[in-house]
Amino acid sequence: MIHTSLTAQQVVDATGGALVAGDAAARVTGGILTDSRQAAPGTCFFALSGERFDGNAFAPEASQRGVSVAVVSRVEEGFSSSCAVVLVDDVLEALQKLASWWRSQVEPLRVVGLTGSSGKTSTKDLLLGVLGQAFRVTGTQGNLNNHIGVPLSILRAEKEDEAAVWEMGMNHAGELAPLCAMVRPQIGVITSIGSAHLEFLKSREAIAEEKCTVARCLPEDGFMIYPADCDFVEMIEASTRAKLVPVGGSRGLVRAEGLTSDRDGCRFRLVIEDSGSCDVALPLHGRHMVSNALLAAAAGWCCGMDAESIARGLGEARLTKGRLRCLDADGVTVVDDTYNANPESMKAALETVAQFPCSGRRAAVLGRMGELGDAAVQEHAGIGAFVRACGYDLLIVTGCDADTAAMAEAAQGGSVRVEQASTAEDAASLLAAAVQPGDLVLFKGSRSSGMERVMHQVFPSSK
């Protein structure tokens, strides 16, 4: 919810629009929204338009439902007389301008801006847990990290907030620069530089160059946090004037020592260079989650927190749904990692689950990974071979295309039984017929593959 001092006139001034109806003193007290179905008294509606919809057409209805201010690029008939109507050339650009203005209104604010090929949202959740131990903190909800989600996240900040964690995503060159200009972080985090977005950026080097936009935007008195073992460390370090904070490995300023794992998660000694150490009980599984935790710990350290407070925040971490969430379903251990997938996160999940204790068989139900371009067949084949190498007993591949066929074919051999299902329903039927109490099942795939549908059909309690 945005601060109650926001008025229609301030919207006009910040966006460069014109007030064409209503009262300039109309107040926004209920937040900013882009979905007219969520319209409520006191809100401000931005009438975004896309290929399949025109928000201007829904603006009058939103006004009838109590919206205080409507920002439109075309004025339709039927507006409530109590609604202030702001006319702009481009509604999305107006939303971003308002967010940029509001960012300047919530100073002083410690802002962490993070990006990466994988691990962004998990790291964001961990950051919120850590910083929440010392500050009133706001952050990105879910994965609202694009050109629409970032300004909406900024507009949720309140003047009473002391810290913010804003996630920034991209899949094309040039997309991070305007997001960084809105977020204006003092602390930058790059979680990883992997193969995601090869379809549009063509090479990992080009992906790294785009991710380094975050490093370039930081002030001289800021901090740049990144994995010490990243393939593009030199590029990151050469891209920023901020203080360098490598994490992990043996040379990280923040690192984990004595790592062990059990069914409850991971345990390690958090070591912060020249600032002490503390034991951490991380309620999450996998080395990749430990890496994410170290990035969050480093941000806490950059904000002046001590090791004990950071460890407490990590120990209380709760991730967004769909990230290595373990649950028991009638004796079957279900691992829900359906949130999204790319080659790096897929391998991390497969490796992590392969180490879980299991009295029965180990199964993986995997879907297609998106945005891999010309590398898609090769990357999917690599995942199939990885499943076989990890010693899984059953692999069910959902989808019927060259990519999923390559995954299924590469998994053949050894002890793994491989099934390929053309639809989610077929995959659910195959799994339901095969699974027994004591088994362990991992579900993972890109959002477009809808792996949660398979999971929910076989295990309704996973919803």
UniProtKB/TrEMBL annotation:
It comes from the Bacteria. Its EC number is 6.3.2.10. Coiled coil: none annotated. GO terms for cellular component: cytoplasm. One of its GO terms (molecular function) is ATP binding. Pathway: Cell wall biogenesis; peptidoglycan biosynthesis. InterPro entries: Mur-like_cat_sf, Mur_ligase_C, Mur_ligase_C_dom_sf, Mur_ligase_cen, Mur_ligase_N, MurCDEF_CellWall_CoF430Synth, MurE/MurF_N, UDP-N-AcMur_synth. Its main location: cytoplasm. It is found in: Cytoplasm. Residues 31-100 form the Mur ligase N-terminal catalytic domain. It catalyses: D-alanyl-D-alanine + UDP-N-acetyl-alpha-D-muramoyl-L-alanyl-gamma-D-glutamyl-meso-2,6-diaminopimelate + ATP = UDP-N-acetyl-alpha-D-muramoyl-L-alanyl-gamma-D-glutamyl-meso-2,6-diaminopimeloyl-D-alanyl-D-alanine + ADP + phosphate + H(+). GO terms for biological process: cell division; cell wall organization; peptidoglycan biosynthetic process; regulation of cell shape. Keywords: ATP-binding, Cell cycle, Cell division, Cell shape, Cell wall biogenesis/degradation, Cytoplasm, Ligase, Nucleotide-binding, Peptidoglycan synthesis. PANTHER family: UDP-N-ACETYLMURAMOYL-TRIPEPTIDE--D-ALANYL-D-ALANINE LIGASE. Belongs to the MurCDEF family. MurF subfamily. This is UDP-N-acetylmuramoyl-tripeptide--D-alanyl-D-alanine ligase. It comes from Akkermansia glycaniphila. The lineage of its organism: Bacteria, Pseudomonadati, Verrucomicrobiota, Verrucomicrobiia, Verrucomicrobiales. The gene is murF.
